[in-house]
Structures are given as C-alpha cells and as structure tokens.
Amino acid sequence: MGCCTNFLDLCKRTHIDHLLRCDTRLHFFATDGKRNDFRATKWLPAPLHLAPAFLRLSYLSLTERIQICRGIVKLARSSSQTDSKQATIGSWLRQHGQSDRAIRCFWEVVLVSALAESLDRASLAVARKVLVDGFLRANSAYQVYVPAVRLRRLYDQIATHLSNHRATLHLGKNVRKVERDASVVNLQLDDDTSRQFDFVVVAVPWRRVASILPPELANLGTAADAIPSSPITSLHLWFDRPIMALPHAVLVDRLSQWVFAGAADADTDSKSHYYQVVISASRDIARRERESVLDEVLEDLRATLPDARDAKLLDWRMITEPHAVFSVTPEVEQLRPPQQTVCPRIVLAGDWTQTGWPATMEGAVRSGYLAAEAILAQLGIANRLVVPDLQPTWLARWLRLA
C-alpha cells in the first residue's frame, strides 16, 4: 500500500519500482455483481479524502454507513490506554454497535486482507494502526501497488542489484546452525562446511529460528516458537478468455476476497488468461475438499463478473500455506523480539520481529533496515535507515491521527 514507505523505498533502491503498478482506484463488487469504485477525492484532505467514495458504496444501507462512520471515528480515537491490550477488533466492533452485516460487508473486506487474520483473532491495536495509517492519515496511503510482471523478474532484478553492490549470493546453501565465537560468527551448513562472518542477520521464518540459534539465545527461540500462524490460500486459474477488464476486483461477503489479473509480460501464454484469487485467514479451507473450494470460487466469479459465466476453466492450482504469516493476536506483541540480540554480532530480521507493523512486506523491510542500523551502531556509525511514515495532512494532525 501507499503507506508502506520502507517497502517502496526498497523498490527504488533495487530499481524494481518501475515493475510495480499503482492502483489508485479500488474496485469493490457486491454480491449482486454491482461494481463500486473506491477512489480518493483530490480536493479533500485526509481523513475526508475517501468519504465521498465510502458514501457511494451502494451495497451498504444509509443506516449501515452512518453506523460504520461512527465506528471509524471511535476506532481512530481509541488508544492502548483506553482499550484493553487483550481485545480483538471483532469483539470491539460488536461492543461498539457494529452489526453483523456491517462487519461482513465492510470491516472484514477492509481489514482481513490487510491483517491476514480473522477479526475474532486479530488485535484491536494492530487493526487501528492499519485503519489510521492505511486510510486516514494521508491521501495516497490507501493506494495498492501490485507487480506488473512475474515475481521471478523482480527477484532477478534484486539479485542483480545485490551483485552490483559487491554482495555474493549462495543459493541452495542451507544453514544448519549459527554459532557464536569471540570475534566472529560461524555458520554451519548442511554440507558439513562452515563459513565465518563479522556479523550475521538471521532472517529465516520465526518457526525455524529456535533450531539454528546458539544456546545463548534459547529463550528467543522459545518465544518465537510460541508465535501463532495464519494461513493464506491462493487459487491460480487459467481461462480460455478474459473474465474481467480490470486489474483487480474485491469481492464483498464471499469466500473469494481479492482477484488479480495475471501480469502481462512476455512469458505469458497468449492462449490462456491467468487470474489469482487470494483468501486470507483461510483456516476453514483446510477442512474442505479442494474441488468444493474451487466450485465456490468459480461461483463467486460467475455471480460477480459477467464475462466469467461463459469462460472455460483450462487449468487450476490451489495452494494453501498454513504458516504464511504470523498471526496478529493481542498476545503476540510480547513475543516479538527486537532486531538486536544479546549476542552483539547476531541480529534478527523478519516481519515477525518488533517493527510496529503486522505481517506485511513493509514490516519485513523495516526489520531489515533496523537490523542494518543495529550493526552500524556497533561499528560506531549512527545512520538512520528507516524511512519515515507518510506525512499526515493538517486535518489528520488536528484530529490527532498523526
């Protein structure tokens, strides 16, 4: 999103920013297939910039829109001092008068994908951060950045950038153990060889940290093991014709959440048309037959997108990553470690570390910048790498949303 200042900074540093497109208009589809476009108004400062678009959401009644507006104001003004740190956003919404339909048709649509977690499990504090930083502070914060090419091209470009800056990549070299010495850090590899470094940034998933860290950091590994996971499911669909002319679609109150049109780069098979359906917090899908999930997703598409009704499905894949991201439950914040460990030459990175952000690419990049800052500090170099958040508008500052 546009509020992800550090992720966008990394894209510029590695020269992949031109490979991303910026969607300034979000396309919401109601259950009856009616399309509602969501775009900021240039002549209104945040947080009012999205108000006209919100008031035009036809699938919400006037009563529901008023109810949701009140909820947004209350949530934006809430804080850790006034609300329980153990509260979930789901329980908070019900306590503050949000109806089941308002929760399903607005709050879940906005928050589940951003948090990668269901509202009954997600932290109130993190939900507030997403709402304020992503929608209320700055006019461009809500905009969505999507790769315009296949991901492999992004990775290859980043690898080239690293090589040009004297970094050496060792692919397929699995680290078995990180061992601390007096003046160096040893990496024990799976092929029984070892390598020595002045500093090591451990950037593996949190579920693997305990198995590779030295005994001195055992408590850190124990805490990481206690961090819960949240699954994400992607359905990759190939049709014999285009099913929509839009770059994306947000489906309201359906199993399918986001639909993305495939990147139109040179390697794309012109005989088929690729789309990806993303379902966050997809725990219920694991208990279902794969074909039943496909059938429901196809029904979602056909009920929402007229061009999908006559399209023939040529091929499909469904991938569920059960540990796609860490779960932003109210309890998880106390388990997230800082980047600097008690072993000075070993630092951590990963969106699951202390970043102030939920499980996002922004959190991942921030953690890397913070890890680099920690190493530079040990070398006596004071260098601020983390990029500041978007500047709030005068109205957002006056309303104390900054």
What would you say this structure looks like, in words?
By secondary structure, the chain is an alpha+beta fold. The protein folds into three domains: 25-142, Guanine Nucleotide Dissociation Inhibitor, domain 1, CATH 1.10.405; 170-227 and 329-378, FAD/NAD(P)-binding domain (3-Layer(bba) Sandwich), CATH 3.50.50; 229-326, Alpha-Beta Complex (Polyamine Oxidase, Chain A, domain 2), CATH 3.90.660.10. 33% of the residues lie in helices and 20% in strands. The protein is built from twelve helices and 14 strands. The strands form four sheets. Strands 3-2-10-11-12-9-13 form a seven-stranded mixed β-sheet. Strand 6 and strand 7 (194-197) form a beta hairpin. The model has no long low-confidence stretch (mean pLDDT 90).
Summary tags:
single chain; 402 residues; alpha+beta; Guanine Nucleotide Dissociation Inhibitor, domain 1; FAD/NAD(P)-binding domain; Polyamine Oxidase, Chain A, domain 2; 3 domains; 7-stranded mixed sheet; 3-stranded antiparallel sheet; 12 helices; 14 strands
Concise structural overview:
33% of the residues lie in helices and 20% in strands. With 402 residues, the chain is an alpha+beta fold. It is globular and about 65 Å long.
